[in-house]
Amino acid sequence: MPDPNQAVSVSRRSFLGGAGVAAGSAVLLRDAHSAVAADADAPAIAGPGAVSLSLTVNGVARAVNVEPRTTLAEVLRGALDLTGTKIGCDRGACSACTVWLDGAPVAACMLLAVDVGTRAVTTIEGLAQGDTLHPVQAAFIEHDAMQCGYCTPGLVMSCAALLQRNPQPTPADVQAAISGHLCRCGSYPHVLEAMQAASQPRKA
Amino acid sequence: MAEDAMRMEKFPFGIASVGVGEIERRIPADEPPPLPVNSALRVIGKPVPRQDARAKVTGAMRFTVDVKLPNMLDARILRSPLPHARVQAIDPAAAARHPGVRAVLVIAPPDAILRYVGAPVAAVAATTPTAADAALRLIRVDYAPLPFVVDPDAARRPDAPLVYQAGEQPSLSIAEIPVTTGLAVAGNVRGPETQGSRGDIAPGFTQAEIVVEGDYRTQTQTHCCMEPHAIVADWRTDGLTVWMSTQATAGVRKELADSFGLKLSQVRVKVAAMGGGFGSKSSLGTYGRYAVMLSRQAHAPVRLVFDRAEEQLDSGNRPATWQHLRIGARRDGTLTAISLVEYGSAGVGVGAGVGNFAQGLYTCPNFAAAQHDVFINAGRGSAMRGPGNTPGAFAMEQAIDELADKLGIDPLVLRERIDPNPVRREERRLGAQRIGWDRRHKPGADAGPVKRGLGVAQSLWGANVQSNAACEVRLLRDGSVEVLSSVQDLGTGIGTILAQVVAEELGLRPEDITLRIGDTDFPAGPPSHGSRTTASITPPARTAAWKVKQMLFRQVAPVLGVAPDQLVARDGRIAVREDAARSMSLRDAAAGLRTEQLSATEARSDDYGGFRRRIGDANAAENDIGGVQFAAVSVDTETGAIRVERVVAVQDCGRPMNPKLIESQVQGGVLMGIGYALLEARVIDQNTGHVMNANLEQYKLAGPHETPPIEVVLLENYQGESATDAYGIAEPSNIATAPAIANAVFNALGVRLRALPMTPAAVLAALNPVPQRS
Question: Fewest 10 Å CB contacts: which of A174, B30, B461, B756?
Answer without folding.
Answer: B30
